[in-house]
Records
---
Amino acid sequence: MIESVSPLSVSASGMEAQAARLRHVSENIANADTPGYHRKTIAFDAVIERGEATGQVRAGAVELDDRALTRIFDPGHPLADLDGYYDGSNVDLVVEIADAREAQRSYEANLRMFDQARQMSQSLLELLRR
Amino acid sequence: MFGKPEVLTLASALAGHAAARQMIVARNVANADTPGYRASDLPDFSKAYRENGAAGLRHTRVGHLHADPSPPFSVAERSGKGHVSPNGNSVSLETEMVKAAETRRDHDMALAVYGKSISILRASLGRV
């Protein structure tokens, strides 16, 4: 069975995609209090090479969540309108933290698969070393 | 005249199966969050080997008709108790971890059997 990609690169692509997701989550959390900030989301795509899915995954394009921004009442804020409200961000910290935990869990699973593939090929090479 | 001992063929076929399965499991885990991805799996080794290994044509000369010595294992969508998430993804990381542990065990067993058979052969030749 000849594979164009190895299990190692498949697991590595998974880790890379999860890391990109985690980075966007941390950007969202950092900007939770930025007025007018829309949270960023990414979807994962399967990598297609020569018309065939290689099994690898990559983080797709960044999209902005178009949920309504929260209206915050603060008459003293420079951006406040006549009624004393201004547009905050639409980041929900609970959602971001849940997303971060899920990304971490998937990252660890990929890491474990990576390590297992490495150990399996290592033990195969041990056969030659006796 | 000097055929390859059956146990070596069996062990290397098991190792090959474990390697192919490792690839499938790695693919499932990498795509654990890809929308619309369906988990796939290989049939068990005993089933796959019975179907296209031991029951295949035997040959004693290179020129004879014979089956492909290393038939690719057929990948199928994982059936059974599958829970599909709202985005159409059917990978369960827990199931994949169990499969990974099984794969690891099969691979270790295959290599142990292979190594042991080789050392028995060497012992019979008077070498240690």
---
Amino acid sequence: METFIQQILNGLVMGSMYALIALGYTMVYGVLNLINFAHGDVLMIGAMVGLSILHLLESAFPGLPGGVQLAIAIVGAIPATMLVNILIERIAYRRLRNAPRLAPLITAIGVSILLKTFAMMIWGRSPLPFPQLLSSEPIMIGGAVISQTQVLLIVLAVVCMFALAMLVEKTRIGRAMRAVAENPRVAGLMGVDSNRVIVTTFALGAALAAVAGVMWGANYASIQFETGTLPGMKAFCAAVLGGIGNIYGAMIGGIVLGIIESLGAGYIGDLTGGFLGSQYQDIFAFVVLILVLTVRPSGIMGERVADRA
Amino acid sequence: MALLTFDTAHKPRQSWASMAVLLAVMLVFPFVASQFGNSWVRIIDMALLYIMLALGLNIVVGFAGLLDLGYIAFFAVGAYLTGLLASPQFAALLESAVNYSPAMGDALVAMFGESIRTEGIHLSVWFIVPLAALVAALFGALLGAPTLKLRGDYLAIVTLGFGEIIRIFMNNLNDPINFTNGPQGINLIDPIRIFGVSLAGEAGSKATVFIGGFGIPSVNAYYFLFLLLCIVTIFMTSRLQHSRLGRAWVAIREDEIAAKAMGINTRNVKLLAFSMGASFGGVAGAMFAAFQGFVSPESFSLTESIAVLAMVVLGGIGHIPGVVMGGVLLAALPEVLRHVVEPAQQALFGKVVIEAEVLRQLLYGLAMVLIMLNRPAGLWPSPIKEDRPVAATDKDEKEEAVVS
């Protein structure tokens, strides 16, 4: 039972991370019908910028409390990733908006490679240690352990998702986003500046990726230029699981995928009689993806097309 | 590219002449290059393998228009198959299999004879190559089957995931039964033997291959083998392109619904694209394993899949001479740069500012972004408009694309 609670907690932690990243995919997909392959690398850039800010803080204001440092790192990483993502949209996607689907996909992969390479040039090739900012005193829940960083991660994810939902539902730009997702051409006829909406969408996705990136670093204590690739791919799987294009789907898909993955990793050994072990954790996301796509391609929340954002 | 043309239908004389010139250059090349050191020939050997891969991927991406981001998995399948069936690895597998389930171990020994307990299996290249093609084709169909109904972008992600899954298995299938030897990879893979002549040279011959009293360096021998395979691949893919099947692929690429309405069995034709593309990758993988003598999961990362895709994109999606050129450029250029740029930086700045590996990545990334933005049909597009993917031609169909 204790392991079960522990796996659920781990799943929630991973899941909120995936949900944050998946939102970036799903929003872009909603307005452009495009997979932003570079999204995972935007997350990595966020983590790297956050780390650099932490190093700056360390030398400029030694002795700041860890929580404040973390907050500054997150707030500082957000504009950086926004800038990167907006640039990506401008350079690599905008001119191909009406091209056949293969073209923007290929540039997206190219951009992903370029981001990784630039990160390798700036921050080096080897994994960088991420400082321990919050107290490492664990919190016990029913015999299971969760760290303070992980609690903060879940809280932040919930806050971000709530804020995003409010933005999409209640504000003018949110309405414009929904309109463009519904039908870009008609939205344009109704006076929506679709370019502005698209740029906003990329910026919002990037902001969430920055939060996820810095928290990823804080949770795993080590980041590298390749950090973003795998979570990026898995988060895409989460977005598909939830129903791509639907922001609530991305949130649910992220959490569900996180829990599936962690339960799967915990019990795969027993299920296969010891033949496969927890080192196969990473395949679950893709297996889920393939299953969802064959059984129910629209995902968990897929039918609510009108809510796409 | 006006000087070299491979358009046999319209300019037969000129294209045969260009082929003859190219072949002559290719035949003489290793003897010239080996004057500067065998490492140069080695680079070209690898480039030839990459060309085979790029041509195989071109079937999937170029002809059928299915974006496959996990193509290197088939290369890995071929390489690991060779590793398992032409090295002492099978003995290790057997040992762990006996521990795991004695009955299975005994059955294997009964099947292959007592000697595999100590020596493993050492199949000849004549078995390995068809087997690699077959198994890779099987994996191709396996990947293709669940993805048939998917649109392009989903397909990309699923294939990406497939590549990752294969890599995870390669990394971890060493326990409880040791198939792949985990992250260390498989060592001591047999070199290729053709009619009793080992292409790695016999022991004590300093990697020189003697054919009838005439000795050439081992890398040159492999060069000719790979060159031959490349020519065979080029021949096969170009015949495929102009076959009924090839035209069906193009039809699906341009408009799947219309293709279906024309009576094309899109499911089977797409599966064939996957498995035929994969089989070329499998053969290239088998060659790679025998050439290197060892395989490890590192050689089959996502970056490699993307590298092969970049070759196809850079050269010209769907145009065989273009793809070959893309393969040469992107496989050989980084290696050449490694030999030139790093010493140059050493001399200029006293240290290496941009490593060759970084430069290689930059090249791949830039190739894909810049080509797609500015020349979507590639550096060397097909001279016939109909042979190019829609990406290159539809200036006036843009309006329709917006609506859909």
---
Amino acid sequence: MFSGLMLNTWIAATAVAVIAGVTGFFAVLRGSTFAAHAIPNGAFAGAAGASLLGLNAFVGLAVFSVAGALGIAGLSRRSRPDVATALTFVMMLGIGALFVSWSTEYAQEAYSLLFGEVFGVAAGEVLPIVVLGATSIVAIIVMFRPLMLSSAMPEVAEARGISTRRMELAFLLVMALATSMTVPVVGALLMFSLMIGPAAAARSLTARPILAMTLSVAIALITVWIGIAVSYQSNWPLGFFVGALGAAFYLFSRAYAAARRRLATRSLSPAA
Amino acid sequence: MLRYIFEPGFFGSGPVHVALAVGTVIAITSAVVGVFTVTRGQSFAGHALADIGTTGGSGAFLIGVNQFWGYLAFGAGAAAIMELIGIQRRRGRDVATGVVLGAGLGLAALFLYLGTQYSSTTGASFTLLFGSMFVITSSTVPILITSALLALATVVVLARVLLLSSLSPDIAAARGVPVRAVGAAYLMALAVSVALSAVIIGAVLSTALLIGPAATALRVTKGPVRAMLVAAGLGVAATWLGIVLAYDSFYWPPARRGWPVSFFVVTLIVGCYLVTYLRPRRDRQDVAREAPDTEQVCSPA
């Protein structure tokens, strides 16, 4: 379970979980969960295009995820963000359908792009993932304060001269960067579940940003580690375990938060 | 002249007839339901339900039940869970949608894996996303149309209270409208219409037909009824034109196997939406005082 090829899997999955935990925290905080779904899934069209042109899939993924981020941010300027995201997303996938219809041997590859091939990570793929993960985390740390402010209190941020629009674009670009490298390894689906479930769970457990972000990373790590171990034993797809565990963590922390609130009000009421 | 637009044999082809009929019903239902989806800011839920419905289909296929019940059960179940854990604020709702979608897609991975273990259907993941309009069997058409009309009827009957509770939940509640129940009923109707259309035309096209025409109509018209009519018209036009173009494209380069319907329909719909951007900004600000942008008005804070 920890030997040879599996070692690559563990390293890559750990890096992905850290990236997903950090970016997911902001995705949940900003309410851009739809974008978190749209960018990885839509980027898949880019991989189809790249295979058509005989390029490396990474090039296609990078181009399309950045184009998706620009499209969402651009359309959001004058329409509702969810509408902008939906339309950008369907346009990317529509182009993807066209690319796929042109090529002949793409259908099998589509499965692995959507659902990932975690157990077939090559040694050469590990380093780019780690480097890219570090880059996107450094980017988030650099813009942590303005991003935090514009996510939590957009009006205050605007008053302080932080452009909400520019922050949105910057954040979407970081998400696109994180996505383009992780999708070929873990799949669009897994990346999405790993970004949303743990972050949402962490956020209902605590309101303190740094603690919530740390918790989000921790839960993402636990989810992916348990997922890999169980998936290795049972041969069932990792995506299933990550999706199920993420939802379970979320429901558990919602229940915990509700119980704690009830306890707090009960202990307060006799005093009042 | 007409022969250049419609390839020979277009009107005689059986699959084309079915595609046109089913496409029309789906386009109208999606557009009308979509006006409320856009107004309520539930685009993500609309898309998520499409994905989850298809998951149910593959699950039903695994245990040997009629796929129709799989779509319906998963769509309705997911809608119920979203409603249960959903919070009033839009951000919270999107997170709830995201968590449910994550779990649903995980199940999809499992079902596909279990399914491909026994039968080699490599294209399964593909149908999940894109569907195929030309492979509708005529036996599923009546049941599909019935459920679509049922969803449409629910939304039309609820239209007034739904609109009020979408625009200002507080006023609706003050007037005695059961806001939460109306929202739940609407989400069910959305689940049914979206899950069914996703099966036939794929999750991509289903989302496009749900959001695109409605968002375009809300930008160019005033008032919900007119928006619904315009949206339905746009949706039907895009679907028909898409089918015609897909049929025409059979001999187009590079593959000479035809371009996909979903590409044409999506391009037409997104194109329509982008055209509304061409209206100069100055004009909109001038009229803003008396007739503000409908899309903005319709957004509940």
